[in-house]
Amino acid sequence: MLIALWILNGLLALAFIAAGTMKALRPKPALVASGMGWADDFSDPSVKLIGVSEIVGGVGLILPLLTGIAPVLTPIAATALTVVMVGAVVVHVRRKESATPSIVLGVLSAVSAVLGFIVVAG
Length: 122
Description:
InterPro entries: DoxX (IPR032808). By secondary structure, this protein is mainly α. It contains five helices and no strands.
């Protein structure tokens, strides 16, 4: 199960760090112009906070388990990212946009959390 957790967390970390970096570094008008219309509904600091939380969550999926320092933080990070994705699904559904990517990332984050708690407890 540890191998499955590493593969899943590696892929999730790449996705969340990439998406978070884009939200944290690009100006809000550029995000909206690139198809992220939801950003219009949020203030610029809120969009940046979402991006930073995705970056921190992505790092949290890898670093604690890799270093062996407080490995319980890995499934906690996955749980937090699941919550972020639930919020994303709500925003996309309210805007009548496709919520599929958010749903997929949310489900995979929840699976990571369950696997992580099993590995850490075992």
